[in-house]
Amino acid sequence: MQTLLKRWPLLLVAVLAVGMLLLGACKDEDKDEDGVTPGATAKATVGEWPGNTDGVSPTEVKIGTLLPMSNTPATTWGTAISGGMKAYAAYINDNGGIYGRKINLVIGDTQYTGPGAIEAARKLVEQDKVFALQGGLGTGAMAAAYKYIEEKGVPDMWLLAGEARFTDPVSRNRFVWLVDYEDEGRLLGKYIGEKYDGKKLGILAQNDDFGKAGEEGVKLGIEDVGAELESVTEYYDATQTDVTAQTQRLKNADVDVIAVYGMPQQAASLMKTARETLDWDVPFVVTGVDAVEIEGALAGYANIEGAVSVVYGHQAYEVDWPGIAAFRANLAKYGGGAGANNLSLTGYVIMQATVHLLEQTGPDLTRDAFLTTAESLCKWMGPVGIAPTSLSPTDHRFTQVERYVKATGVDKEFRWEFFGENMSFESTKDCTVPTPHPEATKQPPLP
Q1: Which domain holds residue 75?
Q2: Per-residue pLDDT reduced to its tens digit, 347-382
Q3: Do 130 and 232 sit in the same domain of this protein?
Q4: What is the DSSP letter of 277?
Q5: Span 318-332, mean pLDDT?
Q6: Can you give the pTM of this predicted structure?
Q7: How far apart are CA 352 and CA 346, in angstroms?
Q8: Regarding beta strands 60-67 and 132-134, do their DSSP bridges make them parallel or antiparallel, or are they unpaired?
Q9: 283 preceded by cis ω (within 30°)?
Q10: Separation CA 212–CA 262 (nearest Å)
């Protein structure tokens, strides 16, 4: 379920300011080299931790989220994602809650920093006593807090970060929403290998774990299809927004196609430089992080036309898709003015997934039972998904399918249009669909 930007004038300004802040491919802050909070441990099982029913009462279940809500341009992201979460929670509450429990969504403001994330996590866990967390945004922020959350045994659901560290090794309490960057890179590499075998590949990559994981994935994907391409890589630092020099060097290297594992602003800089400054009609293949509506405005619609990427779900502008139509209707009714874009859709579907687990768990809600339900998720298809999702005790990554898209259109008609079939790297292939709790059918329907 690819879930990012659409609100044009406001978000253009925000993304220009944020640049490298998208979906957490930022530098880590205030942690040791492994991203571990000192003193944290992963060895206990959830049943050994205290507070197994914290946040649960006969009338309420407290769900927390860690998002940037102030003092950073990434507030645009936090505001929109939380707006989607609030809208779906309000829909559930307006329809009686889950087994009579209303959802109390508590937002922790990370300010998109490691110290901010630790402080917000401690408050949510120790003072607000939330039952679970969901949708924590950003590698840097979550890398500083995830071991603390693990130590406390709080379900840490649907992290919005794509790096392998969050699921390798698996911790029972933590689940990740996004595709692993290396896995995604393999899909892009497969496309490049099949279409440009024998050519020369240029890669623009952010000089951090995000960029290097994607670069490695692209190369592996080329190998997967038996193709051979000579390659050259240009790196940029995450704080660098102008990649004119890197683009010029790639042209001087006479590459035939460019793969980009960078943020939207840097990808846009490359496209604009190639087309407008260098008069260079080289094809672009970009990470799904860049497959957002605002990228057309950043790069220039003529410059980005035909660029290839991947997404993992239906988009907020697909108004004829039933799940999207329901999202837009509920956002209009319960969203408090939140815009119907792919960021608010992200928050909405994350809350949907959490609610589904609450329904499946049943009225006798504990953290143990909830996590057991999560690890038993089998072939569940959300209303805006493109393929079913399965999880297991060894598979805690929600999204393991994507589809190719191509950039086309101008202004509000700019789209990333599907082509080809779904490409799955689902690791949980054999599972049994669990029997729903007898009372599950009496809960609010999934719109």
Answers
A1: 8-179+316-392
A2: 999 999 999 999 999 999 999 999 999 999 999 999
A3: no
A4: I
A5: 95
A6: 0.82
A7: 10
A8: parallel
A9: no
A10: 10
